Amino acid sequence: MKKKLTAVLAVMMMVTLAFTGCGGAGAKTEAPAKELPTIGIVQIVEHPSLDTIRENIISQLAEEGFIDGETVTIDYKNAQNEMANLKTICQSFSSQNYDLIIAIATPSAQAALGETTEIPIIFSAVTDPMAAELVDSLEVPGGNVTGTSDAVSAQMIMDLALEITPDIKTIGALYNSSEVNSVSVVNDLKDYAAANGLTVIESAITNTSEVQQAAQYLAGKADAVFSPIDNTVASAMPIIVETLNNAKIPFYVGADSMVSDGGLATYGINYVILGKETGKMAAAVLNGADTATMAVQTMTDMDIYVNNQTAKTIGIEIPQSVLDKATVLGE
Ligand code: TRP
Questions:
Q1: SS3 of 281, please?
Q2: What is the Cα gyration radius of the chain?
């Protein structure tokens, strides 16, 4: 990366010298097209949260002087939630020797690291970078990978769940068991349940075609359903919300976008800020910073989000104590 920029600068200086050297005589020749540094952005799937993150990464990069088509080339690819696509995309970024890879969500980051330990990778919104085996430690990542984490607390979400619906005893966990980001939070949910006399009923899925059946199963067994920050669930919200709302089952989720999409409530982070932080880290690497010593950024700005429309649909009154501290969506 540094080599390429230095080469570009050297060419630019030679061109300038050539122009000044010929004292204005003769026809102006066009400067040779200079090679821009290239950033590959890989995103596992399209859902509102990941799209917000990507937009804010790109706008922050522009703010830092890395403007697509002017000072950098940005190559954005979406894997449509197919692991095979993720691999192909990351392979192509790696074989073209891009200057930087930005990987949005855990599966993308894992796929990128699987293809290169040379090209710097900045990940965005990885819930548990240690469990995903991306970094040696959050403080000192140690390799070509660092980025931002959207770690949330199952405990805080469940405390909120019990404030809104104090009578729940069994909680269904709906998640994709191949997403490390979800497994890690569901493990915390189980610890919370054990300590608070709740029973967890799991319904693990592996792709979106299974979500309706899984939601239906939980609707018949659990008093409430919990989904972590799961990409597969987030990309299939309408069908899950319809199933759970019909059964009048409260649906607690891991992210604000899942509340906008009909989930009942969450205690979550701000993904606009997270996207901008990711953009800043990416810019720092383009300017020469070393991923090995750049600490993973976690988000401290957390808020309660509730969906009043969903509350009405399932016949629940959100307590005033919650409304007082919540951002209300879905009105
Ligand atoms: N944290 C998720 C991961 O580690 C990605 C993610 C970001 C996400 N925002 C979300 C998932 C909202 C579901 C809903 O892969």
A1: helix
A2: 23
Two tokens, residue 180: 């490390």
Which pTM does this prediction carry?
0.89
Cα torsion angle, 119, 88, 279, 9, sign:
positive
Computed over every residue of the chain, the mean pLDDT equals 92
302, 156 in Cβ contact below 8 A? yes
Between the alpha carbon of residue 48 and those of residues 45, 57, 235, 238, the distances in Å are: 10, 14, 8, 13
Question: Ligand 1 within 6 A of 183 CB?
Answer: no
Q: Which residues contact 199 (CB under 8 A, 6 or more apart)?
A: 169, 170, 171, 193
The domains of the chain, with CATH numbers, are: 38-151+270-298 (3.40.50.2300), 154-268+302-329 (3.40.50.2300)
Residue 177 half-sphere exposure, CB side, CA atoms within 13 Å? 8
Say which residue the tokens 């449509």 belong to.
80
DSSP code of residue 293: G
CA angle 183, 187, 192 (to 5 degrees): 145
Question: Which residues are within 8 A (CB) of 217 and not within 5 positions of it... i.e. 6 or more apart?
Answer: 203
The pLDDT tens digits of the residues spanning 2-23 come to 444 444 444 444 444 444 433 3
The whole-angstrom separation of Cα 263 and Cα 256 is 9
Q: Give 210's contacts (C-beta < 8 A, 6+ positions apart).
A: none
Q: Which one of 55, 128, 181 would you pick to mutate in the ligand 1 pocket, going by the greatest count of ligand atoms within 8 A of its CB?
A: 181
Give the residue-averaged pLDDT of 273-299. 98
Summarised one tens digit per residue, pLDDT across range 225-278 is 999 999 999 999 999 999 999 999 999 999 999 999 999 999 999 999 999 999
Kindly report the number of other CB atoms within 10 A of residue 264's CB atom: 32
115 vs 121: CA distance, rounded Å: 11
Does the C-beta of 253 come closer than 6 Å to ligand 1? no
The atom number, within ligand 1, closest to the CA of 150 reads: 1
What type of residue is 141?
P
